[in-house]
Specification:
Largest sheet: 6 strands, mixed
CATH superfamily of the largest domain: Glycosyl hydrolase domain, family 43
CATH topology of the largest domain: Tachylectin-2, Chain A
Strand order of the largest sheet: 20-1-2-3-4-35
Shape: globular
Bound molecules: beta-D-fructofuranose
Radius of gyration: 22 Å
Number of strands: 35
Number of domains: 2
Helix content: under 10%
Distance between the termini: 23 Å
Structural class: mainly beta
């Protein structure tokens, strides 16, 4: 199978090179701009410095790829224009993008010395021409307890003040934290607070990609704690959470994140970030094998949309656990997932309605299942009662047993070494699967639990077979999401 055969048709992927974290997600004057970490020279140079690749779309269905629009070409970001977010400046009618300029400086190990994290501002009047690179915060603005890992700015305005959250790793106890900076103008930033987990034991050694999500008047702190699977194992945890080495999830917050962080009165002078968050409240965004570094934004319709990077590449030893056979390109994004709050106060995720609109012919799915070719479909199972299993070919199954859901690869080659992931539900009621070439997104119980995974089966078709005591099934063949690569890298 050529590596082109793995190319997804509902999920945005690069023509060549590698993509990872979604960055600068926004909708500005009607156009959606989805940037993402992009190493255009992959696979020539796996470790080449990352910039921001740019996908743009008017309708979440037809995309153009415009190349790398933030390039690590200055002294302040020479080793990577790392992740960050977009802020719509209504006063100037501009988009302001904030990202971390990564600089490996001198001999140090990059954690305790030898790395600069330059929080950098670029402005744009249209989302395509990004101008100037202004470092607005550098290492001198981080408290002494921080290691050199401070990154991934998320900026928003609240009560007349601009706020920036940054993910951080502390120096002594290697714990993840989020720091808050306040600014009157988006250029001058002052430390305004911090937060970390309550327990003495760190909840991951670094919190990457912090984000603030507001739904139904409630605030959620989203973050990606690194080094989790190993950390929880050593604590003997059996809770099905953080099963990937680097996790992605959210903490529900009482009141506002800004108020919570402002309680850190010592700020730059503190001995460490302020412990305030109960580890046990962490909810995984996705229980599959491949979800990380997600980011949210609110679009012009007021929808809160989450997009994640779907191709988690590292294990605890920082080596690739599976050999992604996409030789000349790597990585893809989830479909845009619209977030809503259910009655239980839990965030539910659903593919944006624009994806539903790609549905074409509908067929009933009965006992014995259905074979789909090409692998491009939307499967909906409702009215599920009792324990059972949903089989994908002979390589993957989603099993429900007494409130526990397991997603398991039964073929090592197709799973590329990944084995099993778990989640809990009160009872399994419905399942929706976006079936794509090399990608599956599985939404359970109205999106209360989601499993996303890449898979690498050689067959042109996929056979999907539900086996539950009671269920009803329908499947829609789909039109595809298109990406017009104006440039190939
Ligand atoms: C998350 C991350 C970010 C960083 C970026 C670099 O995957 O490590 O923290 O900004 O990737 O590519």
């Amino acid at each position: 199978m050529s590596n082109e055969s793995w190319r997804p048709h509902l999920h945005v992927a690069p023509y060549s090179g590698s993509i990872s974290d979604p960055n600068g997600l926004t909708q500005f004057k009607g156009t959606y701009h989805f940037f993402c970490q992009n190493a255009p020279t992959y696979p020539g140079d796996v470790d080449s410095a990352h910039g921001w690749g740019h996908f743009a779309t008017r309708d979440l269905v037809h995309y153009v790829f415009l190349g790398c629009h933030v390039f690590p070409d200055s002294e302040a970001d020479k080793d990577g224009s790392y992740s960050g977010g977009a802020y719509i400046n209504e006063e100037t009618d501009e988009l302001w993008f904030y990202y971390t300029g990564n600089v490996r400086d001198g001999e140090g190990d990059g954690t305790y010395s030898g790395r600069l994290a330059n929080q950098t501002l670029m402005k744009s009047y249209n989302g395509i021409n990004l101008q100037g690179k202004q470092v607005v915060l550098d290492n001198s603005g981080y408290p002494a307890y921080c290691s050199c890992h401070v990154r991934d700015p998320k900026v928003w305005k609240q009560d007349g003040l601009l706020h920036m959250m940054l993910g951080a790793r502390t120096r002594d106890d290697k714990r993840g934290a989020v720091m808050l900076y306040d600014s009157p103008d988006g250029v001058t930033w002052e430390m305004a607070g911090s937060v970390t987990n309550l327990a003495e034991k760190p909840f991951g050694y670094m919190w990457e990609c912090p984000d603030r999500i507001v739904l139904g008047g409630r605030e959620f702190l989203s973050t990606c704690p690194q080094g989790m699977a190993t950390a929880l194992e050593s604590q003997g945890s059996t809770r099905p959470t953080c099963q990937n080495v680097h996790a992605a999830g959210y903490f529900p917050i009482e009141g506002s994140i800004v108020d919570l962080m402002h309680l850190d009165s010592e700020r730059m002078g503190a001995a460490g970030p302020r412990p305030a968050i109960d580890d046990a409240t962490f909810v995984d965004w996705d229980y599959g094998f491949d979800f990380y570094a997600c980011q949210s934004f609110v679009d012009e319709q007021g929808r809160t949309i989450l997009i994640g990077w779907m191709s988690l590449p590292h294990d605890e030893n920082d080596v690739r656990p599976y050999d992604n056979p996409t030789a000349t390109w790597r990585g893809c994004l989830t479909v845009p997932r619209v977030l809503t709050l259910n009655d239980a106060g839990r965030i539910c995720q659903a593919p944006a309605a624009e994806i539903d609109a790609l549905r074409r012919d509908r067929v009933d799915v009965g006992p014995g299942g259905i074979t789909v070719e090409p692998k491009l479909a939307d499967l909906v199972l409702t009215g599920i009662e009792g324990d059972g299993v949903l089989r994908f070919g002979d390589f993957l199954e989603l099993r429900a047993e007494g409130g526990e859901l397991t997603l398991a690869f039964t073929d090592d080659a197709v799973g590329q070494g990944r084995k099993l992931r778990r989640a809990q539900v009160d009872a399994l009621r419905d399942i929706r699967v976006l079936v794509d070439t090399s990608v599956l997104e599985i939404f359970v119980n109205g999106g209360e639990v989601v499993f996303g995974t890449r898979y690498f089966d050689e067959a042109e078709e996929i056979h999907i077979e539900p086996d539950f005591p009671t269920w009803t099934g329908e499947l829609y063949f789909m039109d595809e999401v298109t990406v017009d690569y104006l440039v190939t890298r």
